[in-house]
Amino acid sequence: MSKKQLICIVGPTAIGKTSLSIRLASHFKTGIISADSRQFFREMSIGTAAPTAEELAAAPHHFIHHRSIEEDYSVGDFERDSIEKLQGLFKSHDRVILVGGSGLYLDAITKGLDHFPEVDPAIRESLNERLEKTGIGSLQEELKTRDPEYFSAVDQQNPHRLIRALEICIGTGKPYSSFRKENFSKRFFESVFIGLTAPREVVYDRINQRVDKMMEEGLLEEAKQLYPHRELNSLNTVGYKELFRYLEEAITLEQAIDEIKKNTRRFAKRQFTWFKKNEQIKWFDYTTPAEEIITYLENQKDQSS
């Protein structure tokens, strides 16, 4: 008997992963696991492009708005919770859909987390002090020098990720990427990867249109409600941090919207970089009919039986 199958829908932001995942979940009569780390938090809806009420009602979703921005929720917590959830879902389903653009969180489910050596805590303290004194730029430059491979994939605007990588680089004298796991955790399911892609200019145009739609749907009002909590790590993310700067009168609203579009395009570029390294992904143009992808998946299942 073949293993249970986790169908992973990946690709850059705004490419159409949500609609495809719902179509597949409906066909296979199964549920959807979200691996989008920004959609975990219930207070963040418009700015994270979370599924709408209608989309959530179209198929069972898990890990959407299940946490508060005031709760600490790490990728390790997600790995533990998602594997537990899958153990339950696979008791009654042969297939489950996984969707998301957060490569690290997707890898946590399909491969397991990397394990790194302990380093002197003073290194992190020093890096945090440098962040406060000189800003994020110096951390970006040092990581780019010490570990260009990881620098090309990491969220370069996330100081927590930069500091974590740098403390390993400094503490061990080796690149952070050299410790990335090679012998992945054995899973009780088979992972099949479906990637949606499009020419870069198409992706960028879809991103720009999505940001405009978010603004029309009330993203600024959502940011105003979250502004008192702006120091939380969960809110240090594209779509909110730019509007927080506008609310602080550091930039105009037009500049904030332009920054959201620019930073989202940069994020999409990093997603391309991350996913292109996975040779298991079967890529489809974003306009491919769902029926064609379903046929491919059913053939894959037959071959593995």
Automatic annotation (TrEMBL):
InterPro entries reported in the protein's UniProt record: Dimethylallyltransferase, IPT, P-loop_NTPase
Any GO molecular function: tRNA dimethylallyltransferase activity
Protein family per UniProt: Belongs to the IPP transferase family.
Quaternary structure (record): Monomer.
Domain of life: Bacteria
Record keywords: ATP-binding, Magnesium, Nucleotide-binding, Transferase, tRNA processing
Positions with a binding annotation for ATP: G11, P12, T13, A14, I15, G16, K17, T18
Site feature (Interaction with substrate tRNA) residues: S102, R124
Protein name: tRNA dimethylallyltransferase
UniProt-listed PANTHER family: TRNA DIMETHYLALLYLTRANSFERASE
Physiological role: Catalyzes the transfer of a dimethylallyl group onto the adenine at position 37 in tRNAs that read codons beginning with uridine, leading to the formation of N6-(dimethylallyl)adenosine (i(6)A).
Entry EC no(s): 2.5.1.75
Region Interaction with substrate tRNA, annotated ranges: 36-39
Catalytic activity from the UniProt record: adenosine(37) in tRNA + dimethylallyl diphosphate = N(6)-dimethylallyladenosine(37) in tRNA + diphosphate
Positions bound to substrate: T13, A14, I15, G16, K17, T18
UniProt cofactor(s): Mg(2+)
